[in-house]
Amino acid sequence: MRTTKSFPLDNPEKFKKQLFAWSRQFDEVAWLDSNNYQQENSSFDALLAVQAFTALKTDYHQAFDQLQEYQETTKDWIFGYLSYDLKNDVERLTSQNYDGLRFPDLYFFQPQKIIQVKGKFAEFHYLRMVDDEMDEDFAEILDLEERGERKEERLRNQEILPRISKEEYLVKINKMLSHIQWGDIYEANFCQEFYAENCQIQPSVVFSKLNEISGPPFATFLKLEQYYLLCASPERYLKKTGSKILSQPIKGTARRAENKEEDLKISHALANDPKEVSENVMIVDLVRNDLSKIAKKGSVQVEELCKVYSFKQVHQLISTISAQLENGIPAVETLRATFPMGSMTGAPKISAMKIIEELEETKRGLYSGAVGYFTPNGDFDFNVVIRSILYNAEDRYLSFSVGGAITTKSNPEKEYEECLLKAKAMREALSG
């Protein structure tokens, strides 16, 4: 059981910065920042969870069953992640590629302290064992100035290495195009890793820089033991509110321009690009199919198709698909039935995942998985882990991956350029 208390805020933006700085003292941290991005389905401006009371950490074997038991037993807020390789729990698949990060496949924790920022109020949700610390914590946060962090040497771009060369990338894309021409798949998401070994960063500083550069609606800083996620994701995977489930896949990317007239032209061109629109529509069909497995008959609807949303770095095509959950379907089963998300796999999904495993060089791990939370009543919200830096502080191994959807209309050279565009913010955050 939790005690809830609300505090008024004179300056919500300043409080958010102080709150994030305050969180750095804890071993387990989940910081979710909407960046006040105006989305109809947003639940808060920022959400912080710290200090594990209980936790679940496991590999992919029966991972969803373990998560369901954990979620239904705690009946509380839990925060954590689902790695892409939980596909091996859902289907008869394997992950044999190189893994420099060595993250657990699934990791959730039940926080002692949760603080939500909503408009001009901060809502504290503390377990009763620590609820006498609310007023003291609020005063401590208000008194905290943004910490002047000791600056680590930034990574130079030459220290961030591609796992595959451009030439290898082009060969692999052509192989994927052959699979499409043979009819094995219609579309698949191909990803490549950039990495740095024996490096040391200050994760909170790099995240703040990345978040400032990108300003996305699903930014996340996650710290669990030595495992860090610094995420600037613009994409929602799945949200459950009561019986309503909502997915918002992204497919279709274009650069931003400083000149307003040119930027508007780029946005209009994206909205009318046959290749980008077809990518998005194929994934919408896949998501509709996934949701139909656990939805009431006839309830799956496309609320928004291929709408252009503009972020600091890129324009994106986003679709919104909703459904009413069938009675008696557990919350975790909703995730299992739709995981991994179609925007990061392809269609048909299982064939695409097999070809991805064959052609990619790196185990995806948390990249292209999901991070988010469950509420006590079984509602949840998860993003798609893209535009993200992953860091194992103990091994001093850093990684970020980028990718894109490959269809019959894909040009390998242009796909490579799109990867570099998506990598720009991560490189800047690490070296700028």
Topology at a glance:
Elements: E1 2-8, H1 12-23, E2 28-33, E3 46-58, H2 63-74, E4 78-82, H3 87-90, E5 106-118, E6 121-127, H4 134-143, E7 161-162, H5 166-182, E8 187-196, H6 203-214, E9 218-224, E10 227-233, E11 236-241, E12 244-248, E13 250-255, H7 260-271, H8 274-292, E14 301-310, E15 314-324, H9 331-338, E16 346-347, H10 349-359, E17 370-374, E18 380-383, E19 388-392, E20 397-406, H11 412-431
Antiparallel strand pairs: 1-6, 2-3, 2-9, 3-5, 4-5, 4-17, 5-6, 7-8, 8-16, 8-20, 9-10, 10-19, 11-12, 11-18, 12-15, 13-15, 14-15, 17-18, 19-20
Helix pairs in contact: 1-4, 2-9, 6-11
What does this structure look like?
Residues 166-422 form the Chorismate-utilising enzyme C-terminal domain. Residues 59-115 form the Anthranilate synthase component I N-terminal domain. It holds the Pfam family Anth_synt_I_N. This is Anthranilate synthase component I family protein. With 432 residues, this protein is an alpha+beta fold. 32% of the residues lie in helices and 33% in strands. It has a 20-stranded antiparallel β-sheet that branches. The longest helix is centred in the C-terminal third of the chain and has 20 residues, at 412-431. The N and C termini lie far apart (44 Å). The mean pLDDT is 94.
